[in-house]
Structures are given as structure tokens and as C-alpha cells.
Specification:
By secondary structure, this protein is α+β, with helices and mostly antiparallel strands. Among the domains are: 82 residues; 90 residues, GAF domain (Beta-Lactamase); 137 residues, Heat Shock Protein 90. The chain is 58% helix and 18% strand. It has twelve helices and 15 strands. The strands form three sheets. The protein has a six-stranded antiparallel β-sheet, with helices on both faces. A five-stranded mixed β-sheet has the order 11-12-13-15-14, with helices on one face. The longest helix is centred in the N-terminal third of the chain and has 67 residues. It is elongated and about 200 Å long. Its cofactor is [4Fe-4S] cluster.
Length: 560
């Protein structure tokens, strides 16, 4: 549709003058000449002509020139107005480009600090301010400055509770105020989105830490689902795991702060539907009512590479309580929980294997060590019974040998029992447990012991258990094989590594020839201890020579 341009009054008047004025002048001149010609006196005709042409002509010329000048002034004013409009449009276009660039940069900013820096620079560029500052509650702030002097502050509130302040080189206009509020709204929205992303990452990090640190299946699930429930605002959570027969069974159920016994809980039909769908679902009103804990529920399948691990369900007392925006994050956390379940099951399986191996080893050592020695003592005593009358001196020597062998085996049994005692790392912590163990070890084995601890210790629970097991095995090897009189244990914590050193003054050995030696207590050879350390990102080394004692060094990375 063509746009109708309103008529210009000045142009209409000029057009009218061009069409009407010449004929009108001619008519007036003719009329005046006719009238003057009626006069019979030449003097009167002269004065009539002089009066008419001396007054009417200049008057008409004056008004005509005035109209022409007014038109020129109007055109000049219109041209100036057009130039101003063009310059204003150019500034608006440039400002719009800066705003678009600012919005793009805000979208691409990776974290909250980057959002504030981008916002401050963009606000300064868009508004033409000499200085721009963005501040959030808590003291987080970014400032962009320029060379231009500015002494007129203009502040606008952000949606997140902070503010945007501009230092303008001129008094702020209503347009400046509107622009400042628009910029504050964009920066506040971007800051809120960045803060939400940061919260999501922190939540995932918390879940990941829970999975790494916790080996107890039920505590792990309650911790992970607790984080999810806090994130989603849920007041009921339950986990149903798939057993070896492919049947869902309740593993962890909690309402508010009260954990319910899983054995008394049934598997709802909604959990079965989530397992079959293999995707997040919302419960229907009938399914939600079946929980008896709320009017809304969402379910997430827990899957890993092998398939479905279980189903995780969150519930709330109010209908429609769960926001759609939280679903992707919660689904990702459910996947993380599936990895935690797999790790916990693998840990339980490895513990069962370790217990079975330990029982086999103890049985073998009893059979090969203590049992053989006791049988040998029994044979010696039978010999003594036959020789006691015929050869008393030989019988006495045999009794002494049997007694020495029995005392040696008693010491071996005591050493094994000491090494096998359960150590409560969680109760006492690594350092206190080490102090007690090293002291008891010296008393049990009649050795001089020294313990030197320096620096900070920052290991995960799993790494602490591995390091303490290395200490146990190393000291047990000292007692069993080194024939040492003293042993020194050093624990040194650095910014990146924690190093354990066990040094004895015993007879030493060639590590190349005895690398697979197994202790009598823990069942770990030197090769196995090295493998355990390397599996945790650590290092393990044994330095020894015959007659020069043995040094065991183990290093683990500190938790950052």
C-alpha cells in the first residue's frame, strides 16, 4: 500500500500564486488603465499613473518577494530537520548494532564474572558513557572506563538485585533513562542465567563428589536423591533398582527427613511405566495418588552402558509442582546416580572377592605355616617320648627346639592377628590411626618405631584407605622378613602430593628377585601394592639392597 504524504501548505500557496497572480495583475492593470483613461485631464492621468504604479507595484513586489523568502526559509528549515533526522537515525542504527552485539556477547559469556565484564563494556559502548559499572549482591562487580570525562551519574536496578551505573558526559535525558533500564534488564537476565548455570554445575559437582566418596549403596542414593530433591523442591524421593532377575525392587525411600525401610515399600505402577518407557515421565493424577505422599510425581530412568539400572522418583504434595526447566538437569543427575550404583556394586563385589581371597590365604597360611609347624612339633614330642629314658640329653634338646618353634609360631599368629585387626579410619582419621598403629606395631614386634608427620593431608576417603593399607603391608613385611631393630615412618604433605616413606635398618633384599613376595597379613605382594597405587594416580617404589635395609615410598595426589 502506498503511503499518503500530507500536503505542504507553503507549496500549495506558491502553486496558487503562480497560477493566479499573473492573470490577476493583468486584470488589475487593465481595469486601472481603463479607469484612468476616463480622466480628461492630463495632469490627473499623470498623478493617477504615478500613484498606481508607484504604490501598487512595489507593494505587490514586496509581498511576492516575502513569500519567496518564506518559502526559502521553510525549505532550509526542512533540510536542517531532515539532516538532524538522518543523524539521529544513524546514531540509533549504530546504537542498535551495539545493543545486538551486547546481547550476543552476553549470551556467549561463560560465567557470571564474564557476564558482568561484557555487560559493563557493552553498556559503556551503547550509552556513550565515560564509565559504566555493574554490581551484584555479594560484592561481585565489573567496571569499564574510557578517556572521556563524565560527571552525570545514572543508575538502573538489575533484576538480580544489583545495579547498573553510567557516568554520562551530559545530564541524562528521559531517553538515556529508558536506555539504562533496558540495558539493566538485559544484563540482569544474562546474569541470572549464568548464575543458574553455575548452580547447575555446582549441583552436578556435588553429585559427582557423593558418587566418588560414598561406597554404601543406600547412603549414596539418599545423598544423590537428596541433592535432586533440594534442586527440584521435592518432599518425597524413592529409588527402585533392578535386581539380577530383571525385577524392580525398592532400595531407598524417604519422605521429608524420614527414611522408610525399603522392605516395607512396594513398587508403584508409575515406576514400572518409567522403566518400560526408558525416558523421564510425569505421573498422571491417578498414579500420583497411588504414592499416598503427594499429588505430583516425576520419574527418571537410571541407565548405564549395560542398560536399565533402576528408576528414581521425586514427589511433591502439590499438583504441578515440578518446573519443566529442571527436567534436563534432573535427568542428568539420575544418570550420574546410575554410575554411582554401578560403582557401589563393583565395590561390593570387589569386597566380596577380597574377603574370599583373604579367607583362602589365611587357610593356606595356617595349613602351610602354623599347621605344618605344629605337626612338626608333635613329631618332635613323639620322638622325645621314645628317647626320654634312653637318651635324656637328646630328648631335652628336642624339647627345647620344639619350644622355640612353638614360641615362633605363637609370635607369627600374634603378628597376623594384629595385622588383621579392623582399623576404623572413619572414626579416628588417617593421622591418629597411623599414630596408634605405628606405636602398637612397635610394641607387638619389639621394634623401635618413629613417626614423623609434616604438611597438610588432603586425600579422599578411598585414597586414605589405600595409603593406610600400604603402611600395614610395609610394616608387616618389616616384621616378617627384615630382621630389623628399628623402623621410621614419614608422612609428608605437599601442595600436590602426599608421600609415605617406610625405612627399616634390616637385612634388605633384591627387589628384582622378590617382587611378588606376599605378606602373611594382608596378602599383597610388592607388585600388587604398586598396581593399587597406580590405579589411584599414585606412585610406588621399593629401594633395597642386601645388608642395607629397605625403603618403601608411596605417593598419592592431593585433592585440589
Amino acid at each position: 500500500m502506498r503511503r499518503l504524504i500530507p500536503p505542504n501548505p507553503l507549496a500549495q500557496r506558491e502553486e496558487l500564486l503562480r497560477k493566479v497572480l499573473p492573470p490577476l495583475i493583468m486584470v488589475v492593470v487593465l481595469v486601472v488603465e481603463v479607469l484612468i483613461s476616463q480622466l480628461r485631464d492630463l495632469r490627473l492621468e499623470f498623478w493617477a499613473h504615478l500613484l498606481f504604479y508607484g504604490i501598487a507595484g512595489p507593494t505587490v513586489t514586496f509581498f511576492a518577494l516575502d513569500w519567496i523568502a518564506e518559502g526559502a526559509r521553510a525549505r532550509a528549515s526542512a533540510e536542517a530537520e531532515l539532516r538532524g533526522l538522518y543523524e539521529e537515525l544513524s546514531r540509533s542504527h549504530e546504537q542498535l548494532q551495539h545493543i545486538q552485539a551486547l546481547m550476543r556477547d552476553l549470551t556467549e559469556a561463560g560465567d557470571l564474572g564474564a557476564v558482568l565484564e561484557v555487560g559493563a563494556r557493552g553498556a559503556k559502548r551503547v550509552s556513550g558513557a565515560g564509565r559504566a559499572s555493574v554490581r551484584l549482591p555479594g560484592g561481585l562487580e565489573a567496571t569499564a572506563t574510557g578517556s572521556a570525562e563524565a560527571h552525570h551519574p545514572l543508575r538502573a536496578e538489575l533484576l538480580t538485585g544489583g545495579w547498573l551505573e553510567l557516568q554520562l558526559p551530559r545530564p541524562p535525558t528521559p531517553g538515556d533513562e529508558a536506555l539504562a533500564h533496558a540495558l539493566a534488564a538485559e544484563i540482569g537476565t544474562a546474569a541470572q542465567a549464568a548464575w543458574q548455570r553455575t548452580q547447575d554445575l555446582m549441583t552436578l559437582h556435588s553429585v559427582d563428589d557423593s558418587i566418588r566418596a560414598e561406597r554404601n549403596m543406600r547412603r549414596l542414593l539418599l545423598r544423590v536423591t537428596g541433592t535432586m530433591a533440594e534442586r527440584a523442591g521435592a518432599d518425597f524421593r524413592a529409588v527402585y533398582l533392578m535386581d539380577q532377575d530383571g525385577v524392580l525392587r525398592p532400595e531407598a525411600v524417604q519422605v521429608g527427613h524420614d527414611a522408610l525401610p525399603p522392605s516395607g515399600a512396594s513398587v508403584p505402577a508409575f515406576a514400572q511405566r518409567v522403566a518400560q518407557a526408558a525416558e523421564p515421565l510425569r505421573a498422571t493424577p491417578d498414579e500420583a495418588e497411588a504414592f499416598e505422599w503427594g499429588d505430583s510425581a516425576i520419574g527418571f530412568p537410571m541407565r548405564d552402558e549395560a542398560g536399565l539400572v533402576g528408576v528414581l522418583i521425586l514427589g511433591h504434595a502439590e499438583a504441578g509442582a515440578f518446573a519443566e526447566a529442571n527436567m534436563p538437569l534432573l535427568a542428568l543427575m539420575a544418570s550420574q546416580a546410575a554410575l554411582g550404583v554401578r560403582n557401589a556394586r563393583a565395590y561390593l563385589y570387589s569386597e566380596e572377592l577380597a574377603i574370599s581371597d583373604e579367607r583362602t590365604r589365611i587357610a593356606r597360611e595356617i595349613h602351610d605355616g602354623v599347621a605344618q609347624s605344629l605337626a612338626f612339633c608333635a613329631i618332635k614330642l613323639d620322638v622325645v617320648a621314645r628317647q626320654i629314658h634312653s637318651d635324656p640329653e637328646r630328648a631335652e634338646a628336642e624339647v627345647r627346639a620344639a619350644g622355640a618353634l612353638l614360641r615362633e609360631q605363637i609370635q607369627e599368629v600374634r603378628r597376623s592377628i594384629f595385622a588383621l585387626r579392623p582399623i576404623n579410619l572413619e572414626k579416628y582419621g588417617l593421622l591418629d590411626t597411623m599414630r596408634m598403629y605405628v606405636q602398637d606395631f612397635g610394641e607387638q614386634n619389639k621394634l623401635r618405631t618413629a613417626l614423623d608427620i609434616s604438611g597438610e593431608v588432603a586425600l579422599s576417603k578411598g585414597d586414605e584407605a589405600i595409603l593406610f593399607r600400604i603402611l600395614q603391608e610395609s610394616l608387616n613385611n618389616v616384621a616378617k622378613h627384615a630382621a630389623a631393630s628399628s623402623v621410621t615412618v614419614t608422612l609428608e604433605g605437599g601442595p600436590c602430593w602426599l608421600q609415605l616413606r617406610v625405612q627399616d635398618n634390616g637385612r634388605g633384599f633384591d627387589p628384582e628377585q622378590i617382587s611378588g613376595r606376599v605378606s602373611s597379613a594382608g596378602g599383597l605382594g610388592l607388585t600388587q601394592m604398586r598396581e593399587r597405587m597406580e590405579s589411584r594416580g599414585g606412585e610406588y617404589a621399593v629401594v633395597s639392597e642386601p645388608g642395607r635395609g629397605t625403603l618403601v615410598e608411596a605417593r598419592l595426589p592431593q585433592v585440589g
